[in-house]
Amino acid sequence: MATILLAPPVVFLIYLALSGLISVFSKRLAASGKDAPGKMKSYACGEDMLENRAQPDYSQFFQFAFFFTIMHVVVLVVATDPAGISLMSGLYLTVTVLALFMLFRR
């Protein structure tokens, strides 16, 4: 019975339930605030901020985000291989390198 309680999915559900209960009780204890006219304005040391009209371009961001995601997954898979750098790990690394070349190919 104790080993089942230590299984990651069970522990996750227990913590999820506990955090939900804490949220419900703390919401009742919290002071209710009043809406103020400047509540949603950005604050910069008392200075009024002008609205930023620049539209950032995220076209390059997704390539780098995908690159870091691939690299993190590869490191986790290779680092947790019980046989060290085995044939499967080497194959996985090779396919990853080819995928990264295709990702950044123009």
What's this model, at a glance?
This protein is mostly helical. The protein has helices at 2-5, 8-29, 59-79, 87-103. Helix content is 60%, strand content 0%.
Query: What assembly state would you assign to the polypeptide chains in this entry?
Result: single chain
Q: What percentage of residues falls in helices of 4 or more residues?
A: 55-70%
Structural class: mainly alpha
- Quickly count the helices: 4
Let me know the average pLDDT. Answer: 81
Rg is 24 Å
How far apart, in Å, are the first and last alpha carbons?
56 Å
Order of secondary-structure elements: HHHH
Mind describing the biggest β-sheet?
A: none
Please tally the β strands and state the result: 0
Described by the principal axes of the CA atoms, the overall outline is: flat
Low-confidence stretches: none
Beta content: under 5%
Model description:
This protein has 106 residues and is an all-alpha fold. Helix content is 60%, strand content 0%. The chain is built from four helices and no strands. α3 runs antiparallel to α4 (87-103). The chain is flat, with a radius of gyration of 24 Å. 0% of the residues are buried.
